[in-house]
Write a structure and sequence with these properties.
Elements lengths: L4 H30 L14 H8 L7 E3 L5 H6 L4 H9 L31 H16 L5 E6 L6 H12 L4 E7 L2 E2 L2 E2 L9 H7 L4 E5 L3 H16 L5 E6 L17 H8 L3 H11 L4 H24 L22
Parallel strand pairs: 1-2, 2-3, 3-7, 6-7
Antiparallel strand pairs: 4-5
Helix pairs in contact: 1-2, 1-10, 1-11, 2-8, 4-11, 5-6
Bound molecules: thiamine diphosphate.
The site of thiamine diphosphate (TPP) has 15 residues, from strand 4.
């Protein structure tokens, strides 16, 4: 390795660690849900790690992201504390939302994480609202809206694209195209000539990239985020990837051809990044040490979450929107 390569290798190595952490977190979370240790829905991000990692590596701490139901990876990549996230999944005090949100509502406004969201496409409208506020206040912030290909066919997404263009907002739309929307192949329910055509219809420039190629995600995200920061937003990044597991932890995904799944799991963004690092002179033993470190971190997070108390009953009605009803009925 020479001096010019060193910073890039170090950067990729840091992102490799983030991807390992995301995968280990979701491998544990999925299994814990199947074992009945967690309640509610748990959607694993396994196989899609390069997108959250490569995009968030180009954001400032003050930038915003919005997410969707498959949100753990985005939050970890934006800097959320895995211990507080694990507590949240367990419904324990000390969780990022006080243990009252669970897997589909992880959020941390102090880190610009506007939240995971169980309503398909609705995180995108929140992102556009945040971008509008950024523009009105003249702040130096970019907003990234992460969403799945299934969101393409919901009205709020189309309204959000339109609004973002009308007001030229500093937002980057990141479509994580994993082929499936729950048990439906997205292409079978999507009209028109492709995902980028949706953005183009609103005058929003876009690009399709291999979302399992961390180098490609990092490079495209850097350009898009810099452009949005310089006032050239909105922009649309279409990242192709694949969902390795069922739609959620309790879904075995039997509606998919095993050969299709196998062809995609062979294209592992983490293995690809490891191979790149090794080709650049990083020794395999260092990557093995990373894996051990990440396993230890997740084990420690689980131990802390399991030992944590339940939220105090007194907090039950805290953080609940008061829409005017005088008493709880
Ligand atoms: C408005 C709305 N309609 C339907 C659902 C049920 N639902 C949950 S996830 C999902 C599919 C989403 O697919 P996609 O956005 O591609 O994300 P992926 O699960 O593939 O990551 C659906 C239809 C929902 N949560 N919200």
């Amino acid at each position: 390795m020479n001096e010019t390569q060193a910073p890039q290798i170090e950067r990729m190595h840091g992102m490799f660690l983030t991807m390992l952490l995301i995968r280990a977190f979701d491998e544990y979370a999925g299994q814990a849900r199947r074992d009945g240790k967690l309640r509610g829905s748990v959607h694993e991000y396994i196989g899609e790690e390069a997108i959250a990692t490569g995009v968030c590596a180009n954001l400032l701490p003050t930038d915003y992201i919005s997410s969707y139901h498959r949100g753990h990876g985005h939050c970890i990549a934006k800097g959320a504390d895995p211990v507080a996230m694990m507590k949240e999944l367990y419904g324990k005090a000390g969780g990022v939302c006080g243990g009252k949100g669970g897997s589909m509502h992880v959020a941390d406004f102090s880190l610009g994480i506007l939240g995971a969201n169980g309503v398909v496409a609705d995180g995108v409208t929140i992102a556009v609202g945040a971008a509008q506020a950024v523009k009105l206040r003249g702040e130096n912030r970019v907003v990234v809206a992460f969403f799945g290909d299934g969101a393409l066919n919901r009205g709020p997404l189309l309204e959000a694209l339109n609004w973002a263009r009308v007001f030229d907002l500093p937002v980057v739309f990141v479509c994580e195209d994993n082929t499936w929307s729950d048990k439906t192949r997205t292409s079978s329910v999507t009209g028109g000539s492709g995902i980028l055509a949706r953005a183009a219809a609103f005058g929003i420039p876009g690009e399709t990239i291999d979302g399992n190629d961390l180098l490609a995600v990092d490079a495209a995200a850097r350009r898009f985020i810099n452009d949005a920061r310089a006032g050239r937003g909105p922009l649309f990044l279409h990242a192709k990837t694949y969902r390795w597991r069922g739609h959620l932890a309790l879904d075995k995904g039997l509606y998919r051809d095993p050969a299709e799944v196998a062809s995609h799991t062979a294209d592992d963004p983490i293995a690809r990044t490891a191979a790149w690092l090794i080709s650049q002179g990083v020794v395999a033993a260092a990557l093995e040490a990373d894996r051990r470190e990440v396993t230890a971190r997740i084990n420690a997070a689980v131990a802390e979450a399991e030992a944590a108390p339940w939220p105090d009953m007194k907090t039950l009605f805290e953080d609940v929107q008061d829409a005017g009803a005088p008493t709880w009925r």
